[in-house]
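Record 1 of the preview.
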Amino acid sequence: MTSDSFILDGYFAGNIGDDLMVLAITRSLPELTFVVNGAAPASSRALAQEPNVLLDEGSNFRGRVLIGGSMFIDTRGRSIREYCRHRRLYLARAATGLRHRILGRPFAIIGCNIGPISTPVGRSLFSAVIGSAHIVTVRDGESFELARRWAKNVSLLPDIVEFWAPPQSNFQGGADATRILGVSPPPSLVESEVSAFADLLIRAASACVEEAGSIDVIRLFGFHAGSTGDSEIVGAIAKALRGSSIFVEVVIYDGDVDSFMEKFHACDRIIGARFHSIILARRFGIPVVPIAYSSKTSNYLRTWAPELVVFDRPWLDGSSLAFVQAVGKATVSFLVLDSVFSPHSEAIQALAEWRFAPDARRGLA
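->
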């Protein structure tokens, strides 16, 4: 490892959304070397071919980049195991931030959402981590309001994956083209709700006939291949759909980013619950109907796509008719970008060159 290397810290647990955030950064900064430690098999496969990514860790590095996702969340109401796991994670990040402050090494927090933070312990850990960062970029308005209380160099920017280039496609469409309804199921779906969710998908597919033509395929996407991933719930939904007249296809992320992206890009409509299924649909120009299983989704869309109607649990909460109609009439929701070079990457580049506001350096250089 060279002294110009940066440690990348994030969720390398086999989630394609998190992997895309990393790849978007590393590919836009080929002159920098990034080190990833402890990645799950799918994430390791996605990153292994990148020439400027090393899948090991050493002691001689320039700085650290904490990248993307729900970095600081409310753990109340979760299982004891989940609570303890997040508490250890936050303590480790607080220690990391303090260590970098003492050693004078640059430290960035890039592309995350924050909160809600509702306890004194949570506020203390959060302020210790984010207050030690030299550069912070967050992806929704509520996170921005929280972050700027403790960090001086904070920017509100769209999610990193909004800058991902769509795959090249030779698809021409036409009367004989296969019509595909892509579905990213909510990870919070429980076994007793699978049948109701499957019925909702059949109704939604039928509603597309007038606007987009008859749906031939329901393509179920598993965005997360890790131990707490989507495989089980996607399999259960596919089984529940077997009696319908629509062909059902399952696509589980396994680290092959290009293959997954091509199959996603081929869809005519997206029902999106996983956060980055919504982001990718917008990026690729696919009509999307969002399901917000987490506040991070509703907060983000409120900031960047207020025109989208966001649903909570339409298979249970009485909004199924409105949801079905929304799928049938879904339109494209674009975010117009000034540049294809992510400002998140610009922030890391500034970090590497030690170019940021003097008061944000905390007098470390």
